[in-house]
Amino acid sequence: MAKLKQWRPNKRNSHMSTNLKVKVWRGGEQGSFASYDVPRQGSQTVLDVVTYIQRHLDPSLSYRFACRVGMCGSCAMTVNGVARWTCRTHVAKVAADGRLEIAPLSNLLVIKDLTTDMSEFFDKWARAKGQFNGKQTRHDDFARVDPNSRERIAANAGIECIGCGVCYASCDVVSWRADYLGPAALNRAWTLVNDVRDTQRAERLRAVAGDAGCHACHTQGSCSEHCPKQIEPTAGIAGLKYLAAKAAIWGEL
């Protein structure tokens, strides 16, 4: 495994402090913050900082990452109080004073240090009927969907979600209501109720129309504000509220 190069001051980054003061969550739910001094480097990401600590200062530090380029979402953590992808968050943008506080995502059980248990997050996707169910088989011709249709445009707005959990960690409703399905699961449901190929529209609307579903959303918009993919789950949840109410009026729920 290649070692990180030692940072040295130069004309371009001589205005930076030579070290970052980093506080990192250690332990489980009842853990605490530990402090580290990390060399500051140009174009340094928060994930770079965590990696430096694990490789050079404390090999017992646990965290999760994979692609390092903003495609998998597995490196999401709480940075200075805000849920973020650490691989795409540059230190210069969040720690101008040279101080960082890195914690696991909120609203999820902590396994160890910066690693959280995502089981409940994905279980809620299942409860929201987040699986596509079509009627065609491999022997049928490809389904043809009008890309300019209202349904396809609505679905397209939410399909780029990669399940990073940032919206879930940023949602106040999830914080005080553990059974709430959460913005990611409801966004997934929204994309599927607008997929004309899917056959479980009625079942999905019933799943998200309960007390822990779309109507529990307070429309504060934290999920949309913090989504790294610039998806707006708040808008999709509002759409689910409308469709669920309409289905109820017509006796379909």
Question: What's the CATH C level of the largest domain?
Answer: Mainly Alpha
Termini distance? 56 Å
Shape designation: elongated
**Count of individual beta strands:** 7
By CATH, the architecture of the largest domain is named Orthogonal Bundle
Share of residues in helices: 25-40%
Task: Supply Rg.
Answer: 21 Å
CATH topology label of the largest domain:
Fumarate Reductase Iron-sulfur Protein, Chain B, domain 2
- Compressed to H and E, one letter per element, the order equals EEHEEHEEEHHHHHHHH
Low-confidence stretches: 1-15
Account of the 3D structure:
It is built from ten helices and seven strands. The chain has helices spanning 46-57, 91-94, 119-127, 150-156, 166-170, 172-176, 183-193, 201-208, 222-226, 233-249, and strands at 19-26, 32-39, 76-79, 82-85, 99-103, 110-112, 115-116. Residues 1-15 have low confidence and may be disordered. It starts with 18 loop residues before the first strand and ends with a helix. Strand 6 (110-112) and strand 7 form a beta hairpin. With 253 residues, the protein is of the alpha+beta class. It is elongated, with a radius of gyration of 21 Å. The strands form two sheets. The protein has a five-stranded mixed sheet. It folds into two domains: 19-116, Beta-grasp domain (Ubiquitin-like (UB roll)), CATH 3.10.20; 119-249, Alpha-helical ferredoxin (Fumarate Reductase Iron-sulfur Protein, Chain B, domain 2, Orthogonal Bundle).
